[in-house]
Amino acid sequence: MQQRPSGLISLRQYVAAFYTTGLFKSERAVLSLAGRPSSDTQARQVAAGTGTTFAAWSVEERAESQLLMRHVTARTRSWFKVASVSDEVSDRTLLYFGSAITAVKNGATGRRKIGPVFQALTSLHILYSRALLAAAVRRIERLNKMAKP
User: Fold this and answer.
1) Is 63 exposed, middle or buried (0-12, 13-18, 19+ CB in 10 A)?
2) What is d(CA 43, CA 63) in angstroms, rounded to the nearest whole number?
3) Looking at residue 10, what is its pLDDT?
4) Closest CA to 81 of 69, 67, 91, 71
5) Distances (CA, A) of 48 to 16, 20, 40, 70, 95
6) 73-108 confidence digits (pLDDT tens)
7) What is the pLDDT, as a whole number, of residue 147?
8) How far is CA 18 from the centre of its chain?
9) Most exposed of 34, 68, 118, 137 (fewest Cβ within 10 Å)?
């Protein structure tokens, strides 16, 4: 999935905004009840590259324009990417977000499957992922408006 907010956005700004939206804070509250508390400070540290864990995730790989986070169960990953686009109209940044489910091997058949729970939740997760990305874009745009004199 991708979004196109106006202006140039760094990976740091994007990840910090994503993890500090009201919508994601709801997920963080649930995770806190499950023993995985987190804070906005931790979100900003992961976004800045000075932290490696946040709630139920840890940094798996980082590049200048991309971040891959791995869930503690190692069953899911979250991917963030920024790509600058300049044209005669304006400078923009494409924001990408993706998530992946790691299939596990069935002991009886040897086939790899994601499992019935993940399968059942896939459609809902796609909608939730789109809402999270849109919320991050709104937060970035709101923060950018506040930063302008």
Assistant:
1) exposed
2) 17
3) 95
4) 67
5) 8, 14, 12, 17, 17
6) 888 999 999 999 877 777 889 999 999 988 888 888
7) 77
8) 6
9) 34
User: Do β-strands 66-71 and 76-86 pair in parallel, antiparallel, or remain unpaired?
Assistant: antiparallel
Judge whether residue 149 has pLDDT over 80.
no
CA torsion 125-83-9-44 (nearest 10°) is: 50
Q: What's the Rg (C-alpha) of the chain?
A: 17
Residue 2's pLDDT is 62
Q: How many CB atoms lie within 10 A of CB 20?
A: 20
State both tokens at 79. 């991917």
Burial of 90 (0-12, 13-18, 19+ CB in 10 A): exposed
Average of per-residue pLDDT across 64-78: 94
In three-state secondary structure terms, 112 is strand
Please give the structure tokens belonging to residue 24.
Answer: 């994601």
pTM: 0.87
